[in-house]
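@channel anyone free to eyeball this complex?
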Amino acid sequence: MVEKYIKSHYLILIVLALAFLVRMIDLSFPSFTSDEARVAFRGHTLATIGKDELGRPFPLLFNSLEDYQLPVVSYLVAGGEFVFGKSEFGARVPFILIGTLLVLLTYQIAKFFSPTPLFWLTSALVVAFSPGLIFLSKVPNQAIVLTFIFALLFYLLINKKNFLFVALVMIISVLTSKQAWFILLPFTFFTVIFYQKSFNWKRKLIQIGFSALLVFLAFSIFLSVPQAKRSLLENNFLIFSDITIKNGIDRLRGQGLEAGWPALVARILFNKLHFLTVGFFHWLSNISPATYFGQLDNSGRISYFYLGAWAKILIVPFSLGLFFLIRKGDQQKKALLLYFLVLTFSSFFVYPNSNLEAVYLTLPFMALVISFGFEQLNKKITILILFLMITEVMINIFILTPDYRNTTALRPIWIKGLTRDIFEKSKVYKVAVSDDIVSDIVSYIEWYTQFDPPAGFLQVNSPYKFRQYRLANIKIVGSDETFTTCSKDEHMETFVSSRDLDKIKHQFDINIIKTYKNSNEEDKAFLIEKACIK
Amino acid sequence: MKKRYFLLLVIILFGAFLRFFNLKDFPVQLNHDEVSQIYDTASIVTTGKDIYGKFLPFAFFSTGEYKVGHYIYISTIPYLIFGDREFTIRIPAALFGTLTILAVFLFINSLFKNWKLAFLSAALVSITPSEIFYSRKSFEGSIGVCLIFLGLFCLINNLDNLKSKVWGYIGLSFLTLAMYVYTSYTMIVPFLLLLFAMIFRGTIMAYPKKFVYQLLFWAILIIPLVYSTITNPGLRFRAATVLITQDVNLGRQLELSQNNIKTYIDYIFARFLNQFNPSYLFANGLDFTNQGLIGMGPLLFWQLPLLLIGVVFIIRSNLSSGKKFFIFGLAILPMIPSALTFEPFSPHRAMLSFAVMSIISAFGLYWLVNFVANLSLFNRAVKTMVFSLMFILFILNFAYFIYMYTVNLPYEKSQHIHYPFKQIAQFAWSQYHNFDQIIVDPIYGQSSPVRAVAVHYYLAYYGHYLPSKFQEDLKIEKSGMSFDKFSIREIDWRQDRFLKNTLIIASPWNVPINDIDKSKIMKRFNFYDGQLAFYAIKL
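replying in thread with the prediction:
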């Protein structure tokens, strides 16, 4: 009876509806980081006037505080805001839809690996209730898009779909994130080798060759951009610019020499091969069990504070699935395990930074392993585990205060009131704002207020690690600025952090007109009068 | 048969060599635990009391953390045999560390009935870095590991020889001893017994009377332990100080949380899983260096592929699923204490787990050797090359461990081994007759100031101070400790600079070098890496 319903797709429709609803609960959570706010505002400007936040018409490369950004995410947001206007819903809905479609995609992929409808359904259900995927389905980000794209590519490749579709998805992937440039070729190669056994070699070579060509073009074109090398070195090949490895090798080798060990021995034992071991272990650390089932990211940047990528209880079916695949799985099922390595190997190069976004790429594949585990259990235990999974996830989704408090600096929801006050004051007066109230307050002002986009346009082409310090009447004040008392014909509204407040207090008397508290009830910003910038 | 025993003997002798060779010099100095243990051992042997005058205590107050005393009592035997030497205190751990090799052989051979597998397991345990490292310092965990393997060996034999009444009681005695010896095993052994009972429940249920008696026997054995754990304030204090509740990161998460129980569960679960982080296991878990991932793990890097192959081999093998779960359970369960304590990683609490992982890597080696040997397309020369390559890689990795252990560890972790307190103690005694009082400041550190807790032990031990006299002379005051001419307290240079005929030994943290008349500096004491640690100032 149940299988009949599954086969007629009723249950998957329910799962999809649940996935969508879970992602819609408390839509304002997680509040945006400054980069996400920038992308959200960019989506608005692209959707309304066809320019990005700096005034460039339909660019393919955007700026941020950390690195260049590729276009797909920004244009997805633009699409959402084109339809739903400048709103939280408009900025988030493309990702909610992608997150929900990922559930359907996993369901479809699962059909390739098992004829059992329950297997398809559990695969979909665990993806629907993955805390990590729920979190990332609610904010503009590359990771959820890339996860969807690689799952889609996998689906197209294993189901031998038309090459044009495959090529299109590959192109979108390289326009989504630099991470794709590292993964696309090995991913395609691997999938073609293991899952396209009935294809002729010509077709296989075309697919692999096309992915190689795309990667080559992506790197080549990107390298023609100013500071592209620096961008790659600082964000994607960090291990080679990290001085601690070289220093560590020299230090440990030197200690041996000082202790009287032969120089040759010290050189054999401590040399540049350590870059390989360090990168290797860093890579493996990113995909350790604690990441998946413990705490994925306790900073709250890409995940709920207390949760891993999956609910804890899923470690049971995952372990059983692993046992099953190793013991009884055929070659194609076993090959699933290697995707953990193929999809995350770029972590090797980003030492010492974490590369948790790469973990997300593996989740649809991991869902299949978990479902193989469920197949080893009887239905009562399966239902019990699924119940516990949903319970844990729902508890975390409804109790968000710890997350708000944990991310009060990174995802400052309290900033909304402050930005609105800044904006209102700036309509009449000049306004000064300390730059350390939050990271890059400009993005928040642009996103959370009715700020007129052209007023913030700058004449810059491809700025790398760009931070805006002036926005119409608003000046962002750094630590090197000096404050004075305003003269009679001067009027400036000044919003300062504790840093600048202390500085000003030492110089002259001031009145604090209003205090702004963060989510931990700490005083973070102060509106003061009589203080002007020198 | 003789060949087997000969090979086993060779392995045990090799393991003994790795554990006993140059035991006096490596680790380069007695650390604070060791010096307190050797002096308390001397105190027990000569007076029957610890240095604070407590008669045969169950838990030693020692340096303030209430050490469970069994290592000290065990050490009285080598103390009586070898006398008052530094390495005496390391002998029990080294001896039991060596016996662990035999215990592993016996356990694996009895569980899997495969002597080659047992031999390889013993061989890999003999060269496992964590086993060697902890066997060369006076660490009771090494004794516990040996006792647990012996206990499990007996319990397996108990199942195999159902008519025998002895094996079960001996095995439970060994396991209970392990519980007494080291607190982590107090927690782990009941879990192991539960796992054992669940997996072999078929046999156990067939002879309920026999196993109920054994269970009762075990319950009687642990009554004193349970009683003392509940009633001894020292043990309760020690447990409270090392529990995860002391973790600052957990404290921060609790502050943010609305639900403490949920926070504890989330945090402990994540901490537990993190114990299986490959970087910790193979790159830097033993904390030999301050160079991030360039360090030494409890297992050799060389064992990583073998461990993975071993896991696959065990899963795919025809072994009973019970035995498979048992061996994996043995690797996983001993990580629990490590997850429940305040440090992110406590490798000393997870020794048993590392030993079992070494055993699993031996399964991998066993499979690999058979696989290569049976490959028909490989000629003999190629096979020889493959084995030679494996051997060379092992030698390189093992040399790397030896280098790290003998060279880098003392350089990088000088402060952690309380270097140079031995030199300070010896110098202080050399100046004994030249001053009215000698003050040693316990505050020192390479990157930040920390308080050394065993200065009185160093001074007493290296001054050959009679324990009976020390028990009488030691005064514990609010400002610090004192005995004879020695005071161990923080220096307040603004006042202490005016003392007369006094030797002050202090670190730059409390006595800035610019404030000192250079002619008054009698001697400088450096950390192992040459960084200034203390100066001796005559007043």
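from a first look: Chain B touches chain A at residues 253, 256-259, 262-263, 266-267, 269-274, 276-279, 282-283, 289, 291-294, 301, 311-312, 315-316, 396, 399-400, 403-404, 406-408, 411-412, 529 (CB under 8 Å).
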